[in-house]
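We emphasize that the prediction below concerns an isolated chain of 214 residues; any contacts that depend on oligomerization or on bound cofactors are therefore not represented. The input was used exactly as deposited, without trimming of termini.
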Amino acid sequence: MMVPNWSDGNGLVVAAMVVEISLSIALVLCTLGLAWVTKTLVRETRKMREVQEALAQPRLSIRAEGNHPSDPDEVILVLRNEGGGPARNVKFKFEGEDGYFRETRDKRWGITDVPQRPLFRKGLESWESGQMFTFVLGVADEKAIERAAQAPWKFHIQYENLSGEKRCETIQVDFSTLDGLYFAPNYLQSISNSLEMMKNVVAEIDEESILNSN
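Result of the prediction step, given as a token string:
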């Protein structure tokens, strides 16, 4: 291996070239490292922005719930924005038959004509995150839930998110979860009443037997 003679001019030139090459390699490595770090930061920033945008999206739901057992002839229609952001300029289009239900005792909440309710007819300027609307549906008869489960309602909804992006979605109201279960409170109450009557009859028979024995 030849060792450069640093005392002459050629040795200095070689040394300068070695230093220059080393610096060039170091610069290339630093550039590559910086590019990798920058790419990683951009990717993570994009992911974070996508997560934030997803969390800020509205998530609209419409479902039917059983009312309190004290009112077993009513169903609650619940509309809720379960997302993290509002829905703007909301428009509804109803599809289905509303004859399964009658007006409730409270005429203000009568929803026999679903499409004519102000909320569905006029829409909403803003449906805020967590905001909920409820409507009471009076059950027409014991077969109403069964018919509604076989031909469920559909709500076609148009709205805009915070970014102004227009979206359309269709929500189907599932009444099948109430079918066969909804009138259970009536049946249970009937059974309870029958048991109470039997108890009273037995008590009367026992009392009469005691009197006759005396």
